[in-house]
Specification:
single chain, Alpha-Beta Plaits, binds flavin-adenine dinucleotide, 13 strands, 2 domains, 18% strand, 33% helix, binds iron/sulfur cluster, alpha+beta
Length: 396
Amino acid sequence: MIRITEKQNCCGCTACAQSCPVNAISMITDEEGFYYPKADEVKCISCGKCDRVCPIVNPQEEPHGDRDVYIAQNRDKEIRLDSTSGGVFSALAQFIIDKGGFVFGAELDSEFCVQHGQGKTKEDLQRFRGSKYVQSRMGNTFQNIRKILQNDQWVLFSGTPCQVAGLHAFLGKDYEKLILMDIVCYSISSPGVWKQFLEHLEKTGSVRMGDVERIKFRDKTKFGYEYTLMTFYGKNNKVLYSSGPESNQMLRSFVSNTATRPSCYSCQFKGVERVSDFTAWDCYNIYQYDKRMDDNQGSSHVMVHTEKGKQLISEIEKYLALQKVDMQKAVASEPALTDSASPSEQREDFFRKYRAGEDVFDTFFLDTGRVKIERFLRHSLSKLGIYKYAKRIMKG
Ligand SMILES: Cc1cc2nc3c(=O)[nH]c(=O)nc-3n(C[C@H](O)[C@H](O)[C@H](O)COP(=O)(O)OP(=O)(O)OC[C@H]3O[C@@H](n4cnc5c(N)ncnc54)[C@H](O)[C@@H]3O)c2cc1C
Ligand code: SF4
Ligand code: SF4
Ligand code: SF4
């Protein structure tokens, strides 16, 4: 029976809970706001299935062999602008929809909590587009996917590498009509902290949550891909609240690895070899590959791990402009592909205050003079259209 003794040894993928034949495992929110499995010892029949499917207890065999890596941009400009990087997810999802299949991805529910949902139409894809830097609630997603696959229909599942590994272990076999896409992630933030952030905005009068219809964690509309903002939209796409990663307190808690899940500090799903068919991540260095594609609207790297993935590439090319690039250069461009996040020094204090029910945002992420200067510079340089050059000089 699964027992979590070290929090770093559970990524919250839910493979154990969804595999239990007697529904003895529930996903419970811990005192830091993350989901963990808890087994009911009375219900448990000691079958051992939960331990067998856990991708941390029993790491999956990752396919070896040659991989290809591409730079990619969705051919539909609106879709690309709406996507976090180059819109790889939407191109794969469109392929699945053309086949009459189902797409699973992270979306916001009516309370703006992150969960995995399913869709079947082109219009559904907007819900899944865009990174949400908060761990998603999986519910019965894996069980639903298995039913669809058993009906011989196509499925795309898109999620973090640990969620993809969890699904792969849960299914226990390959399905011809299943496409797995993971994203590169340094870390994931606490759903509880996200909830407190929304309450903080309401309390401080920054936004009336009742007026909010849509939230984009990385909105490119104002300044493009190089400097994205978290934006809350109301009726008729009215901007109700918008702030960049230097100012936005939730994003600051994310990029500083403060509100991070413990498993992300020693992530077992890093590296080039993965169980997914495709891995997508940002491509800020597009100008190093092809200057013509450097248009500040978003670009992705996409790595193809499997023979199935390689066969699909020619079919998704009608939705995605692709160019094969050098593997070493692509891997070197993003440390999050191979390295775990380092814990922030203030994590312990942050969660002590969070547990005590105190407002963590105005304690740890104040709008200091330094933040104000950085915001002023970012906005000014973006308006002049030279932000990306300044960013590249700073990076060296
Ligand atoms: C938590 C997180 C951290 C990331 N960190 C990095 C990073 O350090 N470096 C980097 O290069 N790229 C990172 N990315 C990936 C990047 O932001 C893009 O998602 C990726 O480039 C694919 O973009 P896209 O334009 O194809 O798709 P998009 O349309 O932006 O979306 C891709 C898919 O990501 C999935 N997704 C979104 N939020 C979540 C979530 N909370 N949990 C599970 N799945 C989710 C959805 O299923 C969605 O359909 C991160 C993404 C997430 C979600
Ligand atoms: S050992 Fe079997 S019955 Fe017990 S919690 Fe695990 S999966 Fe459920
Ligand atoms: S990593 Fe996944 S399968 Fe393992 S204990 Fe945690 S939720 Fe369960
Ligand atoms: S960093 Fe690792 S443990 Fe954390 S969400 Fe990503 S894959 Fe999961």
